[in-house]
Amino acid sequence: MGRIIWTCMLVLLLTACGSDEPDLGGQRAGEAEPGVRMAKSEVSRVQSPDVTDEQVADLVQGNNGFAFAMYHEQGGTGNVIFSPYSISLAFSLAYAGARGETEAQMAETLKFLPQETQHPAFNAIESRMSGLGEKGGGGDSAPFRLNVANSAWGQEGYRFEQAYLETLAGQYGAGLRPVDFGQPDEASEEINAWVEDETEERIKDLVSPAIITPNTRLVLANAVYFKASWFSSFEKSNTREGAFNLPDGGEATVPLMRQTSYFPYAEGDAYQAVRLPYKGEAADMLIVLPRRDASMRSKVG
After folding, report:
1. What are the Serpin domain coordinates in residue numbering (predicted)?
2. Which of 143, 156, 187, 205 has the fewest CB neighbours in a 10 Å radius?
3. Are 73 and 144 in contact (CB under 8 A)?
4. pTM (2 decimals)?
């Protein structure tokens, strides 16, 4: 069984999305779920984004480029785990409210498309990813599950521009939940409750009250929950202790899963790669390993 859970959270002091005038900016209040206040545009989520396959491919290529660039920045001798998709998606929500030099710098660093294309393209990607969960599972195995959720938490009384709220609602399905960041304990508790719910209670206390300041105006959160069965299962009885090669040339003895089967495989001078599909074959895990005498960090990208 495979389970992958990611969350990404941005705490922002925004100037492009609105002002401190006590105005709701055309928002309407509603109930997203019992006990949760919601302020959002009247716009419903766009089900068929006006974007071409080529534009979606350009966004995917840009996201991948950012992922490898970030890996090179963060990689080293220690373990590194992060979700480039979650980071790009959360920043894309912020990008929708950016203008001028901030907008240009975000586009360059994150390899985003122009505003009019970026958000419909991400909407199309999210729609396709959500649809993957309809293709797997069944039989004796647990069903294929892939949930992607976005949320925006805004300072009460802060006026968010109507165009920004319409982009959040129309392209990301995200309403804005008003909170008082002047009460960091209560604000972080609300956000953490959402994260915990969206990750099947696997991630708790993501947001510390210490990172919320009097200048915080918007918190953007993204959660990805993935759970699926292997297409070709690993039998527990086949797990054996074996040698794991360390970056410094040493070895560590660890339990290694084993099976004999046919999988897509590729190799080069510096790497070996194998693709392990999940049940339903709508998603897979791509594993890339450096050859013993090669540094993975120097070869990726």
Report:
1. 68-301
2. 205
3. no
4. 0.78
